[in-house]
Design a protein that fits this description.
The protein has one domain: TIM Barrel. Helices cover 43% and strands 15% of the residues. The longest helix has 17 residues. One of its GO terms (biological process) is alkanesulfonate catabolic process.
Length: 283
């Protein structure tokens, strides 16, 4: 199982210049992937911007959005944004997406929370078309340079529609920021949907948890603030923040036992020393 680390772009009032420095240090430490979590209506760094900054600051580490709120974007615009990040990174991006749940993140006129599932289904076709080099709707020009690729897609969420989209249109599934015991059922549902869709092999399964080692109190508070609008889910996430070596090592073992392909550990603060603290425990 690969171990990745989140970028601190979701930390309230993050010191934005830390993003490329964090990316470089995480690559040097040996993490497999840099992940992002992002909202619009929150004082952080946009996930696409954080991923682009990380792409420019690194050469080998993977890049993953987990998850980007796809339906808050016009489909053609997000398709070009993702292809651009993938291109400048040399093909290191995996686009993890979901439909979004917080109404205040939907700020683009005509792209509100209503009918976002149907919009996602339409947008998936747009992504594939534009990544294949087909013209932008209404234009003779393609949106992406020749020689690009279909950006790998993962889906998050735990609804029947999300599992269906994952199985029909993506490479795998991202579980929520929950303990392994809760993620187990989501992984099983993803595998079942994959099989029902007639897909060969197994979906790529990615897990996500949070950690706060240097200042556990501040880290927990930051994570609680980020999830403040999600009711019971906030309690699950905050109660599952790892603040010591034993908890982190147990979690790695538990997700390995579930058959997860990757575990991304997201930071509760933007303290650069958290990278070394985490690496010393899990790598």
């Amino acid at each position: 199982m690969r171990i990745g680390i989140g970028l601190p772009n979701q930390v309230r009032d993050v010191h934005a210049p830390v993003i490329p420095a964090w990316a470089r240090r995480a690559e040097e430490a040996g993490f497999a992937t840099l992940g992002t979590a992002g909202r619009v209506a929150y004082p952080g760094v946009m996930d696409t911007v954080a991923l682009a900054a990380a792409a420019g600051a690194t050469t080998t580490i993977g890049l993953l959005s987990q998850v980007l709120l796809a339906t808050t974007w016009p489909g053609a615009l997000l398709a070009k944004e993702a292809a651009s990040i993938d291109g400048v990174s040399g093909g290191r991006l995996t686009l993890g997406i979901g439909v979004g749940i917080r109404e205040d993140d939907f700020v683009v006129p005509g792209h509100g929370p209503r009918d976002r599932g149907a919009r996602m289904d339409r947008d998936l076709a747009t992504y594939r078309s534009m990544w294949a080099g087909e013209p932008v709707p209404g234009s003779p020009n393609p949106a992406v340079p020749a020689g690009g690729r279909q950006v790998p897609l993962l889906f998050g969420a735990m609804t029947p529609a999300a599992y269906r989209r994952m199985a029909e249109s993506s490479d795998g599934y991202i579980a929520g920021s929950v303990p392994a015991a809760l993620a187990s059922g989501a992984f099983d549902a993803a595998r079942a949907a994959w099989q029902a869709a007639g897909r060969v092999g197994q979906p790529r399964l990615v897990a996500h948890n949070y950690f706060a080692l240097g200042d556990p109190g501040r880290g927990r508070a930051n994570i609680a603030d980020y999830y403040a609008a999600t009711a019971e889910y906030q309690d699950i996430v905050v109660d599952n923040v790892h603040t010591d070596a034993g908890s982190l090592r147990d979690t790695v073992q538990q997700f390995e036992a579930l058959g997860a392909d990757e575990l991304i550990l997201g930071p509760g603060t933007d303290d650069l020393d958290e990278i070394t603290r985490l690496a010393d425990i899990v790598l």
